[in-house]
Amino acid sequence: MLSAIADVFRAIGGAVATVVTLPFRLVARLFGGASDSAHGHH
Predict the structure, then answer these.
(1) Which NCBIfam families does its entry note (predicted)?
(2) pLDDT at residue number 1
(3) Per 3-state DSSP, what percentage of the chain is helix, strand, and coil (rounded to 5)?
(4) pLDDT tens digits for range 1-27
(5) Single pTM value for the model
(6) How far is the C-alpha of 2 from the C-alpha of 21, rounded, in Å?
C-alpha cells in the first residue's frame, strides 16, 4: 500500500521535474548556441 503510493508520488515528481526543467533546457540551449556563435571567433 505505502510502496504503491510512493511509486505514484515518484512518477508525479518525475513528470513535474521534466515539465519544469524542459523550458530551462530550451533556454540554456538557446543562450548556449548564441554565446557559441558570438564567441566562436578565436
Answers:
(1) LPFR_fam
(2) 84
(3) 90, 0, 10
(4) 889 999 999 999 999 999 999 999 999
(5) 0.51
(6) 28
Instruction: Using the structure block, give the residue that is written with the C-alpha cell 508525479.
Output: 12
Confidence of residue 33 (pLDDT cuts 50, 70, 90): confident
C-alpha span between 26 and 9 (Å, rounded): 26
Q: What is the pLDDT of residue 41?
A: 61
Using alpha carbons, list the distances in angstroms from residue 6 to 1, 2, 13, 17, 20: 9, 6, 10, 16, 21
Integer Cα distance of 16 and 23 in angstroms = 12
Task: Give the C-alpha distances (Å, rounded to integers) separating 41 from 17, 35, 38.
Answer: 36, 11, 7
Residue 28: which of 17, 36, 16 has the closest Cα?
36
